Every structure is written in structure tokens, then in C-alpha cells.
Amino acid sequence: MSRRKQIYEGKAKILYEGPEPGTLVQYFKDDATAFNAQKKATLDGKGVLNNRISEFVMLRLGEIGIPTHFLKRLNMREQLIKKVEIIPLEVICRNVAAGTMAKRLGMEEGEKLPRSIVEFCLKRDDLGDPLIAEEHIHAFGWANASELDEMIAMTLRINDYLQGMFGGIGINLIDFKIEFGRLPLSNEDGIIGHQVILADEISPDSCRLWDRETNKKLDKDRFRRDLGEVTEAYTEVATRLGILKPQSQNNVTNLSVVKNDEE
């Protein structure tokens, strides 16, 4: 890994130059952060779990026609992904009031929303990723009208699919946050445009997931709120999805996995 050129390091992932033009290697760290990295910890095995869960989700989104940056999983901590120009927006889809929305609107956490709501934040850690309106996006040129329509439509399709997928294993999808990127399209004459694609992980780091019967939190809120058993909760999600064998729940640093057909 030290011989590869590092392109970017974020709170939970590192991006390295890929083996082929137009590719990157995405490495999942064990680091956990909250409140714009004011709270930090290292959680043994978290990166492995997020890699496997995100791979599982990306493959299934691809099956329903959602374009993503995911190409394949390389090993327990790394994925090969497409290189894209990241659109500087965080797109949040909310089904139930929780977190900042509940505080901002004075709602009781856990209150079901009248319909799924899509929000946008500017991707700027130094500003606290502020909530912005579509008018800001248009005015400052962060995305054009067509791109914005595509992002909203894809986010709602992803939400519909994830609600069904998690609902089938007894988990309520409260909300999730994703990012999109511009993938260059070319022919023999060169670059002819771009395609907007999902360019993020989907895991308990980026979703709020509550057990349907007990409302037990199975996501990063366990770290944010000092609830403990963070990797155990992530392992439970992976086990319910069928990614891990049940007997591996107590050993997240040496994961026993159910292999994909492609492996």
C-alpha cells in the first residue's frame, strides 16, 4: 500500500491511484469520527464491515439500474472504483425525524415524516457542511438543473430500494447521506460529456438504521451518542444481510464471510 500514490484521505477512507486509468483504490479505515471530526476513535474491524456492507449494497443497486462508482472488492478493506469528479454536495434522504432535522424543526426523534424528504448540504467540513437550498446550488453552479434532477431521482430510487431491503431483515431505514460524481463519457474523438453516478459508500456509517421491534440503533449514532457496541451493531447488520455467518458476530477483526458468486 505504501508504494501506491495517495490521492485523498477523508475521515473514514483513503483513495489511492488505481491500477488502470480512470480508476481508484478505496481503502476503508477503522477510524470513527463525529461532529466534524471533533470526536475521534479507532474501532477495530469497522473498515472491514463497511467495505463488505457497501459492496453488498452497491451490487444490488447496480442490479436495479443505479449507476455507481463501484467496480469490485479487492480484499477485506479495499474496493476498485471509478474515478469521478465529485459534486460538492451531500444529499440526505430522510424518512423519519432524527438527528439534526429533529433538533432543527423541534420534532420528536422517531416521528415518521409525511413523505421522504431530500435535503442538500454543501460539502465543506470547515463550515460544518451547512444545509443549503436548491436555489443556492443553481446560483453558485455546484450542479446544473439536469444534474440536480438526476440526483434527486436517484436518491429517491435508492431510498425505495433500501427501505425494502432493510425492512426485509427487520430494520427501519431512518435516513442516509450520499454523494454523487461526474463520470466522463468519451468516444474516439475524446470527452463528449459526463454521467452523474452514485460515488459514495452506503453503510452504517452513512445510514441511520433502527431495529424495527426495539428501535435499537445499529449505526454510527452508537458512536456519536456514546452508546457503545458500535462494531457489534455493524456486525449485526452484516449478519442479517447474510454477508457474515452468525457465528462470526463475536470476531469482527477476523471476519468469517459468505462469499459472493463472483469470488
Physical arrangement of strands within the biggest beta sheet: 1-2-3-7-6
Mean pLDDT: 92
Shape: globular
For this structure, the quaternary state is single chain
Helix content: 25-40%
Q: What is the string of helix and strand elements? A: EEEEEHEEEEHEEHHEEEEHH
Q: What amount of the residues lies in strands? A: 25-35%
Total DSSP E strands: 15
Radius of gyration of CA atoms, rounded to a whole number: 18 Å
Low-confidence stretches: 248-263
Question: What's the end-to-end separation, in Å?
Answer: 22 Å
The class by helix and strand makeup works out as: alpha+beta
Task: Tell me the major beta sheet.
Answer: 5 strands, antiparallel
Describe the protein's topology.
Blueprint: E1 6-9, E2 13-17, E3 23-28, E4 31-34, E5 39-42, H1 46-63, E6 70-73, E7 78-82, E8 85-86, E9 89-96, H2 99-105, E10 112-122, E11 131-132, H3 134-140, H4 145-167, E12 171-178, E13 180-187, E14 190-198, E15 207-211, H5 221-224, H6 230-240
Helix pairs in contact: 1-6
